[in-house]
Amino acid sequence: MSRLSVFNSPLLLGFDHLERMLSTATKGSSDGYPPYNIEHCDDRTLRITLAVAGFAAHDLEITVEDNQLVIRGRQQDEEDDARVYLHRGIAARQFQRKFVLAEGMEVSSALLDNGLLNIDLVRPIPEKVVKTIEIRNGATHNCQIQPKEQSNDS
Questions:
Q1: 42 burial type by CB count under 10 A (0-12 exposed, 13-18 middle, 19+ buried)
Q2: Contact at 8 Å (CB) between 52 and 73?
Q3: Cis amide bond preceding 34, omega within 30
Q4: Pairwise CA distance, residues 113 & 96, whole Å
Q5: DSSP label at 50?
Q6: Dihedral sign computed on CA atoms, order 50, 114, 95, 102
Q7: Dist. CA 125–CA 146, nearest whole Å
Q8: CB 119 within 8 A of CB 48
Q9: Rounded CA gap, 69 and 106, in Å?
Q10: CB–CB of 57/117 below 8 Å?
Q11: pLDDT average per 10 residues of sequence, the chain (154 residues)
């Protein structure tokens, strides 16, 4: 069975990377740990808040990999023989949470406060670019890119 995509339109050229990004986002972890909020701060700023109680800053890692924000948490198991647990409900649990970032989104800061990891994202204001394309006369040609002429100064 073939999949129908909105990006198959002949009016949307070069958007196949968006389809891959959407596919990656929908394949995200169905695990709800750690819980998180996404807050719209203003037109250019978002804040992701993850509940990471029990994790210290050195247990957390934040990276941006191929337009994905990846947050990993790994707690070190404390080998403390002096503790005797009657019930151990707080587990040292690893996690990895991924968020697909739009083109141009940047991580501006991360702050761990009272078990909440706040990650601020900013979308820089893009510069408007207008490019005029030269129209040449001549016979039709195939889709090969014409090399620029090189000058010989010898």
A1: exposed
A2: yes
A3: yes
A4: 19
A5: E
A6: positive
A7: 34
A8: yes
A9: 9
A10: no
A11: 62 70 63 90 95 93 94 78 79 86 92 96 90 85 63 53
Q: What are phi and psi of 95, to 5 degrees?
A: -150, 160
Residue type, 19: E
Dihedrals phi, psi of 75, to nearest 5 degrees: -90, 145
Residues with Cβ within 8 Å of 42's Cβ and at least 6 positions away in sequence, in order, are none
What's the pLDDT score for residue 154?
A: 47
Cα torsion at 28, 32, 35, 40 (round to 10°)? 40
Nearest to 99 by CA among 114, 119, 73, 116: 119
DSSP for 90-102, written as a single string: S----EEEEEEPP
CA dihedral 64, 65, 71, 72 (to 10 degrees): -130
Which residues does 27 contact at the CB level (< 8 Å), separation at least 6? none
Q: Which two tokens stand for residue 98?
A: 């991924």
Identity (one letter) of the amino acid at 70? V
Label residue 7 exposed, middle or buried (CB < 10 Å: 0-12, 13-18, 19+).
Answer: middle
Furthest-apart CA atoms within the chain: distance in Å: 88
